[in-house]
Specification:
This protein is an all-alpha fold. It contains 1 helix and no strands. The radius of gyration is 33 Å and the shape is rod-shaped.
Length: 74
């Protein structure tokens, strides 16, 4: 249950009809805060797999150029 809002005659800054003056803020309204359920933890498997694959590729390319510089493929 929520508490009833202020009476229009008692609320400061309201014009006839319920609108507010420019620059004024409307009265406080009820709001919902917090989470409705715990947020799931994202999986770490995909980022770790991507880093491992990139590391293997970088090491393979580096080994190729090192062996080529040593004239191993002649």
């Amino acid at each position: 249950m929520t508490a009833p809002g202020p009476e229009p005659d008692d609320a400061p800054g309201l014009e006839p009809g319920g609108s507010v003056l420019p620059g004024d803020t409307p009265p406080d309204a009820g709001q919902t805060s917090g989470l409705s359920h715990p947020q799931p933890m994202p999986s770490r498997a995909v980022p770790i797999t991507v880093l491992v694959v990139l590391g293997v590729l970088v090491l393979g390319v580096a080994a190729f150029f090192v062996l080529r510089a040593l004239d191993f493929f002649n």
